[in-house]
Each structure stands twice: as structure tokens, then as C-alpha cells.
Amino acid sequence: MAIFTRKVTVYEGHVGLHFRGGLIVGVLPAGRTRIPLFKSEIVRLDVRPRTDVVGGQDVTTLDGATLRVTLSVSSQVVDAMAYYRSGPDVLGSDKMASPQLMRVHQAAQIALREWVMARAFKDAFEQRVALAADILPAVSAATVASGIQVLALNLLDVNVVGALRSSMADLLKAEMEGEAALTRARAEAATMRSLLNTARLVREHPGLLELRVLSSGQKPKVTFVVGGDGKGVVAAAGETGR
User: Which residues pair with 222 in a beta bridge?
Assistant: First the structure.
């Protein structure tokens, strides 16, 4: 009868673990529900997706170099009963302290270390884009028993640590300077080819030079020579059109 029940509210983004006599008898969805008045208790559990950062891990590669890698992990509680039974602190306000979420972090750290330590520095650095996708299955499998599903795993940062960092910077600088010098050389070669082609055309077709002058809008200069003594004395000079 309704007189022996009471209403409980579970807010959106949460579920309610229904305990009766100290045992879980069901999981209540969001909304208002009636439960028995006596010997019943509801433990509300946040099941909204969350994203946490797995802080920079210094990992040694197969050939002794050190990489500092930072990941982000998005996860969600999908099995409230398994989550509750796999560890305490369901009611704790600091969910990061719960062992269930710590297992997610540890699984990501372990998978990350195994991935980096199995590769030489050059291979690990060049293949870093594939790191998150490669370790996602292992992280997901390690968290199923805790009732948590890993929704996404993303690589945030990869840094070279130690003396190798300055060597990488020097190598990058040398590569950029080499590319800049190559670009300048290509531009100079293109300019020389253009000048060579122009000189060849003018030599084969002298009239092109006059057309070039006319198209540029410049007025050609004309020199008048007077006198019949054959000495070619210049008497006056001017420009056409004046």
C-alpha cells in the first residue's frame, strides 16, 4: 500500500542504489520513485561522463631516452552495482580519491609505460600520434570490472626530457635553416632561368625589346644629327611626342 512507501528523488545524471536490509536490490534511474518506508535506503551515484588528466609520466624508451607524456581520460560509470562493489567511497565528495577512478589512472599509466618502453626513442617520438589509440583497448579492459567505461583517451603532450632536449632543439634549428637555404637557392635558380629565357628571346627577336619599352609606358628618346660634314655632330636631343 502507498501508505507504507515514500518518495525518493534521483537527479538527472545520477542513479540510485536501492538497499534493503543492507543488500542492493536494484538501481533506480533519475526521477521520482516510491520505495518501501522501512528498511530501505538510497545511495545516489554520479554517472555523468568526466575527463581527468593523467599527469606527465617520465618514461624511459628502449634505448635509454626519457619522454614525458601527458594523457587525458574520459570515463563514465556504466554499471553502478559493479562500481559500488569494487571499492569504497561512493559517497565521497572527492571522487578522485575513489579506488575505482584510481584504477583508471593506473591502467592508463601502465599501458603508456609498456607502449613507450617497447620502442626506441626515434620510433616512439615519430609514432606518438598513434599512442592513445594503441593503448585504449588495454585501459578499457582493465576498468570493466570496476563498472567504468573508458569513453576516450587522448594524448595531450609529449616532451623530451634531459640533455636530449637541447640536442633535439639543435637538430630542429639545423633542419629549418637547411630548408630556408634550399628555398632561397630554388628562388635564385628560378630567377636565373627567367633571365636566361628573356635574354634568349631578345637575342632571337630584337623587336621584343621595343615592344617591352612601349608596353611599360616610357617614351623612347630620339637623337637628331645635323650637318653634312660626315662627322656626326650631335646638334639637339629630345623625346618623341614633345
Answer: 238
The answer to whether 77 and 64 have CB atoms below 8 angstroms apart is no
Measured N-to-C along each axis, helices 163-204 and 207-215 cross at an angle, to the nearest 10 degrees, of 110
C-alpha cell at 27: 538501481
For residue 64, give every residue at least 6 positions away whose Cβ sits within 8 Å of its Cβ, in sequence order, or none.
Answer: 121
End-to-end CA distance of the chain: 117
- What is the number of alpha carbons within 13 Å of residue 169 lying toward its C-beta? 8
Condensed to tens digits (0 to 9), the pLDDT of residues 166-224 reads 555 555 556 666 777 778 788 888 888 887 887 777 777 776 666 666 666 655 555 55
Whether residue 60 sits in one domain with residue 142? yes
Contact 77, 45 (CB under 8 A): yes
C-alpha cell read off for 181:
637555404
Contact between 15 and 81 under an 8 Å Cβ cutoff? The reply is: no
Residue 238 exposed, middle or buried by CB count within 10 Å (0-12, 13-18, 19+): exposed
pTM of the model: 0.63
Regarding whether 57 and 26 lie in a shared domain, the answer is no
Identify the domain containing residue 159 by its residue range.
50-166
Domain shared by 55 and 150, yes or no: yes
